[in-house]
Design brief:
The chain has about 250 residues and is of the alpha/beta class. The chain has a single domain, classed as Rossmann fold (3-Layer(aba) Sandwich). It is built from 7 helices and 7 strands; from the N terminus they run βαβαβαβαβαβααβ. The chain has a 7-stranded parallel sheet with strand order 3-2-1-4-5-6-7, sandwiched between helices. Helix 1 links the parallel strand 1 and strand 2. Helix 3 packs parallel to helix 4. The longest helix is centred in the middle third of the chain and has 23 residues.
């Protein structure tokens, strides 16, 4: 039997990049998967079709992470569709790379609203449905622990907040048998941060392995934390960065 058989997972921001890889991997491991997307319905549909072609079950739900009511509705739709909720993956996030001095307050607000407020709102909504053995998994960032380059000040600050949110929440939910962990990717080859071009050169150089990671490598860690073998892991920050923070 697949290790996530009869489990239901909700992944925020699951239509592309790391989120899509996570949705596909959890489905491959047996979970029924719901995922949210902000705008690109065609990309979301493609992820659903791929999961279904491989024998899985998935639904895509339009919900911008900055819209609390939409996020809450996405949680309720997941529960209404599948009858339960076992795994929440807070993956939706954004960055606006530029010097802090040049960053507008509106841009800062957007990063905070998606990376922090959206995570708070989704987690709070999910807690009414998560039971014993439930899993909450954040997708943080290696720069939430160590800032290796300029231009990511608000992003790094929000990911550091996600790290502490994980640790603090794990203390509150341990008595309910719910684990809370934070997967911290380093440079991952996605359309938002492709492993080509000038910006990629210093990121590759900063890693011990000298390469970008693949979205599937992050998904593998998420799948492990979501599974039964990780039942005694909670309040932990799991960095998957090719040795960038070594």
């Amino acid at each position: 039997m697949s290790k996530l058989a009869q489990k239901v997972a909700l992944v925020t921001g699951g239509s592309r990049g790391i989120g899509a890889a996570i949705a596909k991997r959890l489905a491959a491991d047996g979970a029924q998967v719901a995922f949210t997307y902000a705008k690109d319905a065609s990309a979301a549909s493609a992820v659903v079709k791929e999961i279904e072609l491989n024998g899985g079950k998935a639904i895509a739900i339009q919900a911008d992470a900055t819209d609390v009511k939409a996020v809450e509705a996405a949680v309720e739709k997941t529960f209404a569709t599948f009858g339960r909720l076992d795994v929440l993956v807070n993956n939706a996030g954004t960055a606006i790379p530029k010097p802090f001095e040049d960053t507008t307050l509106e841009e800062m607000d957007r990063v905070i609203d998606i990376n922090i407020r959206g995570v708070f709102a989704t987690t709070k909504a999910a807690l009414k449905h998560l039971g014993d053995g439930g899993r909450i998994i954040m997708i943080g960032s290696a720069v939430g622990e160590r800032a290796i380059a300029p231009g990511l000040v608000p992003y790094a600050a929000t990911k550091a907040a996600v790290r502490m949110f994980t640790q603090a929440l794990s203390r509150e939910l341990g008595g309910r048998g719910i684990t809370v962990n934070n997967v911290q990717p380093g440079p991952i080859d996605t359309d938002l941060n492709p492993a080509s071009g000038d910006w990629a050169v210093p990121q590759k150089a900063a890693t011990a392995l000298g390469r970008y990671g693949r979205a599937e490598e992050i998904a593998a860690m998420v799948a492990f934390v979501a599974g039964p073998e990780a039942s005694y892991i909670t309040g932990t920050n799991l960095t998957v960065d090719g040795g960038m923070n070594a």
